[in-house]
From TrEMBL:
Domain of life: Bacteria
InterPro entries named in the record: DUF6691
Keywords: Membrane, Transmembrane, Transmembrane helix
Protein name: YeeE/YedE family protein
Organism field: Henriciella algicola
Length: 142
């Protein structure tokens, strides 16, 4: 129960941060990505602050023998950059640049954005489903 409450609190804090920083505003994000046009650098400060907080937080977390509400740390074992990862990153970047939303901010945008965010999330879910279908077909032996 405590883990679920902490997860809820972390999610609400993250979503509130996205709303306050305006990362849920597609126009603001697109202006940040428009380096050679009407560039708005304010989101760089948001991302920089997030990196600083994360770096400091990790220093404290790794001093502990285990997490507060779990038996062990869950660190990904695979650190290899492969074609699937690179392709996914490129598609993520293209989608973020075209629409001005990515999954976290799109969910938070439901609180203020309504229908456009809902359309994005529906398209995202369809893309995830299509990936699962094609990935499973590709993994099956012939």
């Amino acid at each position: 129960m405590a883990r679920n409450l902490m997860a809820l609190l972390a999610g609400l804090t993250f979503g509130l941060g996205l709303v306050i920083s305006q990362m849920v505003n597609p126009a603001k994000v697109i202006a940040f990505l428009d380096l050679f046009g009407n560039w708005d650098p304010s989101l760089a400060f948001v991302m920089g602050a997030a990196l600083i907080v994360t770096a400091i937080g990790y220093r404290f977390v790794w001093l502990r023998p285990r997490p507060v509400l779990a038996e062990s740390f869950q660190v990904p074992g695979n650190r290899k950059v492969d074609a699937k990862l690179a392709t996914g990153a490129v598609l993520f970047g293209i989608g973020w640049g075209l629409v001005g939303l990515c999954p976290g901010p799109a969910i938070a945008a439901l609180t203020i954005g309504g229908v456009p965010a809902l359309g994005f999330l529906a398209a995202m879910a369809a893309g995830m489903l299509a990936f699962e279908v094609f990935d499973r077909r590709a993994a099956k032996p012939a």
